[in-house]
Amino acid sequence: MTSTIESIVIIGAGQASGHACKTLRSEGYEGRLTVIADEPHDFYERPPLSKGVIVDQEPLPRLFPDDSQAALNIDWRRPCRATEIHRDAREVELNDGSRLVYDRLLIATGSRPRLPTNAWAKIDNVLTLRSWDDATRLRQRLSTSRRVGIIGGGWIGLEIASSARKLGIEVDVFERAASLCGRSIGPEVAEYIQALHLRNGVGLRLARQDIQLDGDSDGRVCLSADGQTQPPYDCVVVGVGVDINLELARAAGLDTAQGIVIDAAGRTSDPAVFAAGDVSQHPHLGLCLQSWAYAQNQAQVAARAMLGQDAHYDEPAWLWSDQHGVNIQILGIPRGETRCVQRSDPQGPVFFYLDADDRLVQMVAFDQPRAIKLGKRWLAASRELDAKALANPDFNLMQLR
Ligand SMILES: Cc1cc2nc3c(=O)[nH]c(=O)nc-3n(C[C@H](O)[C@H](O)[C@H](O)COP(=O)(O)OP(=O)(O)OC[C@H]3O[C@@H](n4cnc5c(N)ncnc54)[C@H](O)[C@@H]3O)c2cc1C
Fold this sequence. Notes:
- This protein is an alpha/beta fold.
- The chain folds into 3 domains: 2-112 and 242-306, FAD/NAD(P)-binding domain; 115-238, FAD/NAD(P)-binding domain (3-Layer(bba) Sandwich); 335-400, Enolase-like, domain 1, CATH 3.30.390.30.
- The chain is built from 10 helices and 25 strands.
- The chain has helices at residues 15-26, 52-55, 66-71, 132-142, 155-166, 187-199, 247-251, 292-306, 369-381, 387-391, and strands at 7-11, 32-36, 75-77, 82-86, 91-94, 99-101, 104-107, 111-113, 126-127, 147-151, 170-174, 203-205, 211-215, 221-225, 228-229, 235-238, 242-244, 260-261, 273-275, 280-281, 318-323, 326-331, 339-345, 348-354, 360-366.
- The protein is globular and about 60 Å long.
- The relative contact order is 0.13.
- Bound molecules: flavin-adenine dinucleotide.
- Flavin-adenine dinucleotide is lined by residues 11-17, 36-39, 46-47, 49-50, 81-82, 108-110, 129-130, 156, 245, 248, 277-279, 290-293, 295, 319-321.
């Protein structure tokens, strides 16, 4: 099959694209590999942008060193945007009017920060964080800020809050819901994270609706929530979720739902077109995960499948966050009726969510990466667990290996 494929085109140059390229070459693909990228940078990963990049001035978190990237022998089209996919002709059109022919196409266009209203985009120092350029802007603004407002109490907002506190900046987080990260974790975990932020001096303004923003003549941002005006912020960062970059796929008539619909091999409704990373809808969970591990590992699977190999993605959802020096790892997503079992180890708590048959649905561990490794095995084996043992800090979880 490999010999019949002479041209692979990838749209996007993020985490998923980079790992797809690496896999294609390591699996022996020697044909033309073209990457269309609207950012001018080499492949880089995004998790450090909300952490070390803004706190410690870390450099561009490149996926590969120079020599490894050069060895991928990529025909770069950057900065350049793919504007249309002509599936009948198997061509991608670019914003310079040129067209690229593909035998296999990978759509890895990711997602972009959502703004509740376009008017906010026009206010100076109302910022979002997705790209290296966004992080550079945010870092610059934070370096002269005393007060920062954050809209959205999800993972990105909370990580920025934590980073800003490390820089000694006063931070308020405004969240519409009554708890933090409500879509991805249970109330017990949300409460623990809330306490972590309060202990570290973050002002949490929960259940705040009707947020209005306006700029003042000094470049500061005036924020009011539920009609109450706050003292102005030096900047406001909006982290209220993302819009999936689905437009190209939709216009090309591919099946889409929350994201591009794919099977476990990453194949879309067109057998010559694959999708990977944030833009693809998880083949089993029916949602877009937006996780570093998914973007990397599912893209590797899609790359192998593009070469005609028998490849399937079947990993559980896993993502992590670092806040106030604490590593938070989340395995699985909330699903159905569960009960929460909490374990309080000295290094940090673990929250297990079990279904009616005492099988693990989700677990969230604070500074306990080894517990998560065990959880991955339990999930894979659909193992029945003893809630009492899990909750007992004197019981060594390794016994359940
Ligand atoms: C600040 C931040 C912190 C994060 N922290 C964590 C974390 O701690 N843990 C975790 O698990 N996950 C984290 N994530 C999520 C993780 O980084 C993403 O899930 C991952 O980057 C998705 O990779 P991707 O390749 O699908 O998309 P992206 O990395 O977004 O890459 C897509 C690329 O395609 C480009 N593109 C889009 N449309 C076009 C077009 N038409 N033509 C050309 N190019 C196009 C985009 O500009 C972008 O460069 C974080 C994300 C952000 C933004």
